[in-house]
C-alpha cells in the first residue's frame, strides 16, 4: 500500500507594537515547510508581512516536482 504524499508547514508570525516609532510595529516571521525550517526574518511594514506569508503559501502549495 502506497502512502499518499502529504505536505505540511507552519508559519509563526509574532507581531508586537513599539511605541514612539513612526512605523509602530515589528514582526518576526519563522517559516517551515516539509519539516525544514528556513531562516527567520524581521519586518516592520504590513506589505512585507503579507508578501512573506504569500511567498510561504505559494512555496507550500506549488505542485510537487
In summary, what is this structure?
Helix content is 25%, strand content 35%. It is an alpha+beta fold and 65 residues long. The chain is elongated.
Molecular structure report:
It is a single chain. The chain is α+β, with helices and mostly antiparallel strands. The longest helix has 16 residues. It has 1 helix and 4 strands. Strand 1 and strand 2 form a beta hairpin.
Describe the secondary-structure layout.
Blueprint: E1 9-17, E2 25-33, E3 36-37, E4 41-43, H1 46-61
Antiparallel strand pairs: 1-2, 2-3, 2-4
Proportion of residues in extended strands = 35-45%
Instruction: Compute the number of helices.
Output: 1
Helices and strands: which structural class? alpha+beta
CA(first)-CA(last) distance:
22 Å
Instruction: Give the % helix.
Output: 10-25%
Radius of gyration: 15 Å
Question: How many β-strand runs?
Answer: 4
Keywords:
35% strand, single chain, alpha+beta, 65 residues, elongated
Amino acid at each position: 500500500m502506497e502512502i499518499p504524499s502529504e505536505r505540511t508547514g507552519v508559519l509563526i508570525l509574532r507581531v508586537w507594537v513599539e511605541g514612539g516609532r513612526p512605523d509602530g510595529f515589528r514582526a518576526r516571521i519563522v517559516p517551515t515547510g516539509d519539516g525544514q525550517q528556513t531562516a527567520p526574518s524581521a519586518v516592520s511594514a504590513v506589505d512585507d508581512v503579507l508578501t512573506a506569508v504569500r511567498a510561504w503559501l505559494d512555496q507550500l502549495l506549488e505542485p510537487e516536482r
